[in-house]
């Protein structure tokens, strides 16, 4: 499997998770502390005091500054140390690295890599999550598995039939062939499965009110390494969008996964589900939140098992890939390529 | 200590443990899934789907077939994949290894090694366990220690005096010398301790009804690596079998241990105790089941401690062997020899 | 960081911890069993039976002898094996190492290294702990961190302001410069901080009855590797000892830490606090015992965190030292030097 891909934006948190406390989160193996200044800006600093490596996240804020909880070394939002105990002079080299951050589409994004290369325009979009025309439910689950297993999992939804039967899986998912397309230049992978006449999983029957069979489209759009989008369209069987692109009788669900490696063997699994129907209906929201979380946890449980299995496999263990794996294999290839410069640097 | 001995039969389970569910068990480091077909035959397959290594034991049966719980790859009892999702063609190479199995003497035996060399006639016998002339109590305890420590433990019963005092140990066990015999050709080790006049441990006093001192014989017969038999004879002191071999006043207990390595540092400890007296007496069975389990758990606790100790010892740590270790040292020597071909192959 | 320093006395236990049971304790990675003979002498033996490495501490005493709980090998207080099961002859080489021990100042000291070099006159003193002119509270906390982190912690008390605020820390501790002196020949490090006019921490206000500001002296005396003394003097602000050295209006607290490495990554943290006021006052003792334990546990919690951090740092990670670290750096340098002969031996 591939290594970490650096010099990328990753989702570190939901914006609502970061406030006037100190939030410790490890991203690509780097321990980072997040907080907001009194002005509301997000700060991300390396979570280790320069003095004796004590985690700043075990400390406290004094205004916009972090005061180390061990000996009181104090840092401003740029990471510069502005006070040390027992003396007035602060050593010139006393500073902790700060990380470029950006808030977009309800997420706090952090740049992992060379700060000089951070460019906000490179952040991939998930606009539905902050769009009043959609209602969103969401969560974050700790996954004790390498991020590549989550990518594998999401790139092929035929597993819905087996792992998520009774929730979002029906026999048609596994039975319907997929089409896969790779935009090498923009580095986006598209996997589509259009079921013209499928059973409606209870999950959607209850939330949309559709009775009987459905037309169900699943259009995946993966922006490696960090953002996965699933454009999902549900409609009564045979009902298609109009020739003008409007789709008044379709129900649209935008499923967003932010896939953020925590360590080599664990991952932050951010999931959000935005819908354009039953807007603001709390009962539907509660139902979808609970059911989506259950589905995510079914994946988490399976991938945690798989991670433990793989860690005990000998190097070069074999897999057998079939048609459904086309998207996942394309993802692995691109991730491998994106990781290469960092691997070269590590040699 | 020696390594795993492959190309051998091992006890994988009691026959009653294997049914229409999926039983995961690791034997000599190999993850295996066991189940019964609708016809009642035991099937043993490698517990890893060929596709992405998901454990088949986390899946479900569909008739006699196992359906992988992740993506639905389906296997027949021979391990051949008969169905994959999203396509009709099944790749020719899609199969998981199947293991030779046999049911004998109440156990499910599995052959670990080259399947072509599996020969049911090589399975060592413990006929009492399935003989209506005996009543058996039994159990299986997980042991967090290498199997060699259990072999060591069982080959010298003088530890009964110290570790199992108040149960099966009395001073005479440690005080009485042993005789040891090794049948190099058949690879069987015999260790005998005949106490002509010994205290009767409460354990036997209660179950046999003997009052006063006893003649107590312990005849060990170890078939490396997997089967250990202790032929135990109890009688009122001075009462011997007749010249014709009949023994109407003796009480006979056949203690059987199946010693199955799970990993390099853990073992399946199957124990069974068959008696030819108080047949079918549930009160005696309950008493013996509870007491034998207590004794087994005393060993397990001590060996778990010893395993942790040994893992922290430097290589080549020293032991000091005395007379009581003759049987155990013979066992180590034979196990070492039996493991050799596999070690050579591993180089 | 430095390695273990051998050929030294270490505190193994409080004298009251060692009695007629078997006490297992690992010192500098060596498993040792402690007990008292019927005459009251402390015995320290290697905690591994020569036979099969079973821990003697899992055994029992028979008079002054230890009987191994597995096979009954029996040792006298010198470590000589005097009985083995199943035979009358005891192998000549059957003995476990015994450790030189001494009782002094309420502690049981054990010599780790070459027994021939053990010299009781080398044991550093903490006489207050066994002096009727003082009342002592004390404890022992398991620390999941290398001992060097505890040395670092204790050599600079400016952390009291941040880690122990509300207990023994006030702003003056961190603000007041220290003086450091190193006696290279006797290998003692002195660090002093004299605060002429400081807030009185609740901790001392309550136990001394002083109202208002105080003069507070902290005089550290570290005898590497094993004993740390903090001579603490509290008095109403401006009250100094008399010219003749008497100090009737001062309150004296002798804080003693015995720092005993357990393994490379864990430490026995013995702490004792002796006072020359409120002698025998149980209420004051209870208050000081609870508060001192809280302070010790604040350190333990922080150092446990730091140990986990450091274990994940790459080799040669950077620290930034300032004035307050002068004592700690001197301690590291001396420990490094004291560990050298053992390192050379290990090569």
UniProtKB/TrEMBL annotation, chains A, B, C:
Keyword annotations from UniProtKB, A to Z: 2Fe-2S, Iron, Iron-sulfur, Metal-binding, Monooxygenase, Oxidoreductase
Organism, scientific name: Amycolatopsis thermophila
Gene Ontology molecular function terms on file: vanillate monooxygenase activity
Signal peptide: none
One Pfam family in the UniProt entry: Rieske
Name of this chain's protein: Vanillate O-demethylase monooxygenase subunit
Residue span(s) of domain Rieske: 9-110
Annotated EC: 1.14.13.82
């Amino acid at each position: 499997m591939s290594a970490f891909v650096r010099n990328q934006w990753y989702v570190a948190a939901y914006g609502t998770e970061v406030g006037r406390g100190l939030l410790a989160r490890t991203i690509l193996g780097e321990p980072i502390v997040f907080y907001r200044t009194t002005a509301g800006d997000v700060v991300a600093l390396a979570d280790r005091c320069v003095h004796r490596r004590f985690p700043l996240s075990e400390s406290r804020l004094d205004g916009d500054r972090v005061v180390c909880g061990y000996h009181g070394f104090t840092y401003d939002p740029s990471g510069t140390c502005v006070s040390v105990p027992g003396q007035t002079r602060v050593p010139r080299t006393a500073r902790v690295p700060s990380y470029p951050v950006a808030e977009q589409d309800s997420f706090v994004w952090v740049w992992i890599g060379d700060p000089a290369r951070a460019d906000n325009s490179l952040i991939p979009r998930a606009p539905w999550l902050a769009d009043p025309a959609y209602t969103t439910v969401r969560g974050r689950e700790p996954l004790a598995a390498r991020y590549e297993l989550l990518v594998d999992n999401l790139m092929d939804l035929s597993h819905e039939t087996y792992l998520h039967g009774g929730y979002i899986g029906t026999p048609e998912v596994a039975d319907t062939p997929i089409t896969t397309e790779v935009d090498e230049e923009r580095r986006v992978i598209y996997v589509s499965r259009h079921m013209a006449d499928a059973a409606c999983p209870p999950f959607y029957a209850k939330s949309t009110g559709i009775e009987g069979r459905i037309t169900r489209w699943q259009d995946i759009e993966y922006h490696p390494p960090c953002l996965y989008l699933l454009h999902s369209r549900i409609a009564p069987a045979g009902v298609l969008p109009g020739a003008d692109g409007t789709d008044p009788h379709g129900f649209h669900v935008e499923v967003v996964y932010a896939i953020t490696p925590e360590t080599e063997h664990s991952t932050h699994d951010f999931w959000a589900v935005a819908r354009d129907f039953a807007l603001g209906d709390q009962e539907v929201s509660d139902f979808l939140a609970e059911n989506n979380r259950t589905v995510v946890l079914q994946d988490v449980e399976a991938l945690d098992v798989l991670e433990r299995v793989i860690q005990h496999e000998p190097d070069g263990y074999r897999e057998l890939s079939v048609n459904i794996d086309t998207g996942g294999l394309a993802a692995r290839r691109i991730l491998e390529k994106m990781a290469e410069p960092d691997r070269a640097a590590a040699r």
